[in-house]
Amino acid sequence: MKFIPKKRLERAADNLLMEFSQARSSSIDIPVPVEDILEGHFGLSLSFENLSALLGRDDVLGATFVDKREVSIDQTLDPEENPGTEGRFRFTVAHEIGHWLLHAPTLRNEGVSHALREKKPKRTDKDPREWQADYFAACLLMPKALLLTQWDEVRAVKKRPIGFDASNEMARRFQVSEQAMRIRLHDVGLAVSQG
User: Fold this and answer.
1) Is residue 53 assigned to a domain?
2) Which residues of 13-44 are buried (b: 16+ CB within 10 A; e: fewer)?
3) What distance in Å separates the CA atoms of residue 23 and residue 175, rounded to the nearest whole number?
């Protein structure tokens, strides 16, 4: 598996957002419309499935079926059925977009990619393609330019309630999980603290 540096992954996400924006003749705002990118830009279909039953594994959140041009997300992440999973659902869709964009030749040989649930794996244990798709997804959902603008806006609020958590507010705005937001804020060098 070819190593892809973080800067190249971020550039790939930024380029995709620029292409999508130009194709729609409108600027990208938050939350980033990952479903529209998947279906409208790439022409892939999106469905919810019982991936454990379908693939015979209980650790799969998403799968890309290359020959069918189809992305399946595990039914447990359906935000209409389970509203608390919206952030994880959006991240999984972005992750599968990353596989489609970054790993298409390999995926064509294998037929399917799987987005695996993390059970606290050591970084070295993770398949490089999974790490690359994760990092790409973070960059796609939380583009640095929009992140910086929103961070300044959130931090500029003068009267905050006791216990205000800027990263939580950022996660809400970008419709991602708090964990994903904290990791991304750290990655771009923004302090993650309360108040």
Assistant:
1) yes
2) bbebbeebeeeeeeebebbbbbeebbeebeeb
3) 23
For residue 38, what is the DSSP state? I
Beta-carbon-side half-sphere exposure of residue 88 (alpha carbons within 13 Å) = 19
Query: Given a cut of 70, is residue 124 above it in pLDDT?
Result: no
Contacts of 128 (CB under 8 A, 6+ apart): 1, 3
Q: What distance in Å separates the CA atoms of residue 19 and residue 73, rounded to the nearest whole number?
A: 25
Residue 116 backbone phi and psi in degrees, to 5: -90, 145
Say whether both 49 and 93 belong to one domain.
yes
Give me the CATH number covering residue 38.
Answer: 1.10.10
What's the pLDDT tens digit per position in 17-51?
A: 999 999 999 999 999 999 999 999 999 999 999 99
Q: Is residue 1 part of a domain?
A: no
Q: What is residue 27's three-state secondary structure?
A: coil
- From the centroid of its chain, how far is CA 31? 11
Amino acid at 146: L
User: Of the residues 141, 165, 187, which one is the last residue of a structural domain?
Assistant: 141
Give residue 102's domain range: 6-141
Q: Are residues 115 and 126 in the same domain?
A: yes
Q: How many CB atoms lie within 10 A of CB 9?
A: 23
